[in-house]
Amino acid sequence: MNSLSKIYNEHKKVLVWTMLIVVVFSVFAISIPKAEAGWLNTLPLGYSNLGNGYTAYRYSNSRWTFGGVSHYGYWVLIEPPGWACGNDFAASCSSLDWVNVSLPINGSCSFYHYYCYSGTTGPSASYPTSWAWWCLGSNGGSNRACYEWKPPASCNLPWGGTTPSGTSVTAYRTSSVTSPTTCTSVSQTRTCNNGSLPLGSSYTKGSCTVNHPPVISFNSSNQTILLNQSVNYSSSATDQDGNMDYLALNWRNPDGTYNWSSGQSSYQATVNNGPYFHYVPSRGSGSYSISFKPSSPGTYKIYSVAHDPSGWVYSSSYTLRVVPKPTAVLSVTPNTISSGQSTRISWSSTNATSCTSTGGFSTGGRTVGSVSSGPLTASTQYQIYCNGAIGSKVYSSAQSVTVLVPAGTLSAYPARVEEGKSTPIKFTWTLNNVQKGVNTCAINKRATGAPSSSMGSPVMSGGTINSSLFPSATHGRANSTNIVQDSITTQTKYYLECNGIAVPNSSVIVNVVPNFNNF
Question: Is 4 helix (H, G, I), strand (E, B) or coil?
Answer without folding.
Answer: helix
